[in-house]
Amino acid sequence: MDSKTCITENHDVTALKAHLALNVSDVNRSLEFYRRMLGIEPSKVRTGYAKFDVQNPPLNLTLNQTVVNGPGALSHLGIQVSSTEDVLALREKWAAAGLLTRDEMQTDCCYALQDKTWVRDPDGNEWEAFVVLEDNLPTASVCCGTEQTTAEDSASVCCGADQTPAVQISGRN
Fold first, then answer.
1. What domains can you pick out in the chain, each with its CATH number?
2. Phi/psi of residue 92, each to 5°?
3. Phi and psi at residue 117, in whole multiples of 5°?
4. Taking Cα atoms as reference points, which of 107, 118, 105 lies closest to residue 79?
5. Which residues contact 65 (CB under 8 A, 6 or more apart)?
6. Distance between CA atoms of 76 and 81, rounded to whole angstroms?
7. Which residues are 155's β-sheet partners?
8. Closest residue by Cα to residue 142 from 98, 109, 105
9. Number of alpha helices (DSSP H) and beta strands (DSSP E) in the chain
C-alpha cells in the first residue's frame, strides 16, 4: 500500500452520524428555534456559529450565520421515524415547545404513502417528521420538488414552503 492510500478495499468505514450545516440569517434567532425543536442545548456557540450534537437521530447540526438571499437549493429536511405514533409524539413535543406544526396524514408524496408533521425555522427551512406507510407506489399525485399531475391535488402538495397547513395546532407560534 502506498503512503497516500487511506482505506483498503477490505476496510468498511463506520459513519458516526450525518452532518448538516445550515446557512442562517441570524444565529441567535435560529438558536432559539433549534433549542425548542431538538429539545437540547447547543454543544458549541461562537459568534456567527452554533453546533448541536444530536444523539437521536444521530446528527451533527451546525448553524452558520451568513447573508441569506431567499430560499436556496434546499428543499426540506426530515427525520424518518418508525410509526405514526412517533410522528404524533414529535408533533406534540414541538407544539409543547411553542412551535407551529402542520400535519399531512395519508399523504401521497414521492411515490410513497406517508404520515408527516412539519415545523419551519426562522429562515423558512422546513423540517418534517415522517413515517413511510407504503413505499414504491406506481404513481404519485404529488412528489417533492416536481410538478403535480392533477389539478385536484393542488391543495395537498407536500414538501413546499407555501402550503396551507392540513392541521394546525391552534394557540401556538
1. 18-65 (3.10.180.10), 77-147 (3.10.180.10)
2. -65, -40
3. -135, 150
4. 118
5. 23, 24, 25, 26, 27, 48, 49
6. 16
7. none
8. 109
9. 2, 8
pLDDT mean over 36-44: 96
**pTM (global) more than 0.70:** no
Average pLDDT over residues 56-85: 86
173 within 8 A of 98, measured Cβ to Cβ: yes
| In contact, 13 and 7? CB cutoff 8 Å | yes
Spatial neighbors of 129 by CB under 8 A, at least 6 apart, are 78, 79, 81, 86, 87, 90, 91, 116, 117, 118
91's grid cell: 408533533
- Buried (b) or exposed (e) across 15-54, using 16+ Cβ within 10 A? eeeeeeebbbeebeebbebbeebbeeebeeeeeeebbbeb
List CB contacts of 96: < 8 A, sequence separation 6 or more: none
Q: Which of 126, 123, 19 is nearest to 75 (CA)?
A: 126
What's the rounded Cα separation, in Å, for the pair 140 and 112? Answer: 7
Inter-residue contact 102 to 90 (CB < 8 Å): no
Confidence band for 73, pLDDT divided at 50, 70 and 90: low
Q: Within 10 Å of residue 61's Cβ, how many Cβ atoms?
A: 21
